[in-house]
Design goal:
This protein is of the alpha+beta class. 38% of the residues lie in helices and 23% in strands. It is globular and about 60 Å long.
Length: 282
């Protein structure tokens, strides 16, 4: 009986929330947001950031309030501020959902972690020391090897003519050693074409509004950094970040990690403004 009563209350709350606008939902949810935040953040600041983000990107106001709140709660629980110094983003896009026997298009908000957000999470790791990220140019002196005698040597060209970017690498120094990951620029871009829904499989190019078109360097850095993150001694925070990156959730929970991703990655007609498929689905 108590279970049925709880379900009825949950349904009633859901109906009430659906009638609210996004700003109203944010205001009503500040108390719950505060419970989800780590000590270095506060709910009022996150609420102001969310409202500013929506004003700067009016497309967010066209999305379902539930998905906006879901993305905001994910950002809150990871302790990342959306649209602040590239830590995380609230991305409007068109999702496909099955209602009854029909598929419909719904505008929703997707939560995405920026590469600076992953850097922030790395430094919270108990074993972290330093993290270096660099581009490799065609005229630089560069060599590396994986295996039992792994090494990475990089000396930038000194005469100013470094040439074009050919690759990216990240080196993580931990208390118990160090580890690095290198990927060529072509490998990064091919990874994006495989895992990003902003890649037009007909035109064989990225959407002009995609971060892969606007900021390819940032997306390549994030790609390499995520691959490195998978090699680090896992922390609960990093595991959750890898799982929640690029997800859409229209429910809130004390632990958003437990809420199922509702993004439909199989729909090739989805139009994204900014998104990259989570590497956890490889």
């Amino acid at each position: 009986m108590s279970t049925q009563l709880a379900e009825i209350k949950q349904q009633a709350l859901a109906k009430k929330q659906k009638a609210k606008t996004i700003p109203e939902l944010i205001k009503l949810s500040l108390n719950e947001l505060g419970k989800a935040l780590p000590a270095h953040l506060n709910a009022e600041r996150l609420g102001r950031i969310a409202l500013t983000t929506m004003r700067l990107n009016p497309a967010l106001a066209e999305c379902t309030p539930e998905s906006f709140l879901g993305a905001l709660f994910q950002s809150a629980q990871l302790g990342l501020e959306p649209n602040v110094e590239g830590q995380a983003y609230l991305i409007p896009y068109t999702n496909s959902k099955k209602v009854g026997n029909e598929w419909i298009k719904v505008k929703e908000v997707q939560f995405q972690i920026g590469y600076k957000g992953y850097i922030e999470l790395f430094y919270r790791h108990e074993l972290s020391c330093t993290l270096d990220m660099h581009r490799v140019f065609s005229n630089d002196e560069f060599d590396y090897s994986y295996g039992t005698d792994s090494f990475l040597k990089h000396k930038p060209c000194q005469d100013g003519e470094r040439g074009e970017v050919i690759g990216y690498y990240t080196v993580a120094k931990l208390r118990n050693g160090s580890i690095f990951k290198y990927m060529t620029k072509n490998e990064c871009m091919e990874h994006g074409k495989t895992h990003s829904k902003s890649f037009d499989k007909v035109k064989k190019e990225f959407d002009k509004n995609s971060p892969w078109s606007k900021e390819p360097d940032a997306m390549c850095k994030k790609t390499v950094l995520i691959q490195l993150m998978k090699l680090l001694p896992k922390s609960v925070e990093i595991q959750k970040a890898l799982a929640m990156d690029n997800t859409t959730k229209s429910k809130v929970n004390i632990d958003m990690f437990n809420i199922k991703d509702e993004t439909n990655w199989d729909d090739e007609d989805i139009t994204l403004i900014e998104t990259e498929r989570s590497e956890n689905n490889e």
